[in-house]
Amino acid sequence: MTIRARRERRPGLPVFGALIRPTVRALPRGPLLAGAVTGLLVAALPRVLPDLGTPETGAVLLRVSALAMALGLAFLLDDPSRVMTETTPAGRPLRVHLRAALLAPLAALAWSGALLLIPRDARPPLADVTLEAVTLTATALALAAATVRTSAEPEPGRAAAVGLLALVVAGMLLPDRWGLFVAPGSPQWAAAHGRWAAVLAAAVIVWAVSVPEPLRRGGPRTGGIRASAGC
């Protein structure tokens, strides 16, 4: 029965396709849109205030823009109906990854717009600053996924956003030799982005560990498997 339940738990393409429309409707549009718009407005400041068109200021503005977008994406997993959807044939990993896949192209488009809004002469190395943006987003998502897994919180966005802000503040307080937010042209620039890559790897690991079904007191919940298996 256990093997049969596991097999029936695996959704096929029809289930995947049927999930797209309700997933799009359930996305928390408010925080996601607010994060993207705020990030783009911050990146557009040098276009209206030419005095901000320096590489140092460009790096700061892009970091603030990346943080704003990451804070919006921290709410990606918010789902007030999670209690009901946990017992559907589509497991939580599929639902979570589907949300991420639907938002990834839009997030990439928003970030590309932010990069283009910064004047060419004021842009820091694009690959490195994009690494920072990806890391902030991955950290926000990892915090949200960990919150859901450990507490079954249906709307983990607020906790994830607060956690991300706390980590950013902690990163800004690090000593220079361990710093993350270094200025373009600094001798520590390459080393700092090696540390950014390490933080990204840690966030991906936390995400991978947290995406499976949430922990429950007394062991993993099996109600959804039993329902789908007809037990």
Keywords:
231 residues; mainly alpha; disordered N terminus; 70% helix; single chain; 11 helices
Description of the structure:
It is a single chain. With 231 residues, the chain is mainly α. The protein has eleven helices and no strands. The protein has helices at residues 2-9, 13-26, 29-43, 45-48, 55-73, 82-85, 92-117, 126-151, 157-172, 189-210, 223-229. The N and C termini lie close together (8 Å). Mean pLDDT is 83; it is low at 1-9 and 217-231.
Short characterization:
The protein is mainly α.
Helix percentage range: 55-70%
Q: Describe the sheet with the most strands.
A: none
Tally the beta strands.
Answer: 0
Shape: globular
**How large, in whole angstroms, is the Cα Rg?**
20 Å
Regions with pLDDT < 50 over 5+ consecutive residues? 1-9, 217-231
- How much of the sequence lies in strands comes to under 5%
Distance between the termini: 8 Å
Give the count of structural domains.
Answer: 1
Helix-strand topology string: HHHHHHHHHHH
Structural class label: mainly alpha
Number of helical regions: 11
**Mean pLDDT level:** 83
